């Protein structure tokens, strides 16, 4: 599991006085920084090896300005060419603010095609499959 501590900036907040819903995805992105380094140690965008296929966020409790939050990031599912990254955001005192998931795919940007994950990458991903204790489950999407 990867743990990333972030301050909530004034610019993250909207007219409602709390963190704007779109900013949660930016927090999740910061939590994935180490994962990006596993694929592209140089962080050179011309050598990037993953692409986002899907994202999801469950908002649990609002986040307010000047809090320090912790983004927990871990790997759940690993497939041939893709893997799921799970996220949870907690505030002071362990209050859960959000749960999320992103599906990333191995991708060759020059050839514009999906590529299988290497066994070496899969081994690294498997080392990070434990999430935090007490984390809320993701809500199931349903038709209403």
From TrEMBL:
UniProt key word Hydrolase: yes
Gene3D superfamilies: Hotdog Thioesterase
InterPro entries in the record: 4-hydroxybenzoyl-CoA_TE (IPR050563), HotDog_dom_sf (IPR029069)
Xref: SUPFAM superfamilies: Thioesterase/thiol ester dehydrase-isomerase (SSF54637)
GO molecular function: fatty acyl-CoA hydrolase activity
Pfam families listed in its UniProt record: 4HBT_2
Signal sequence interval, chain numbering: none
Keywords: Hydrolase
Keyword Phosphoprotein: no
Similarity comment: Belongs to the 4-hydroxybenzoyl-CoA thioesterase family.
Protein name per the record: Thioesterase
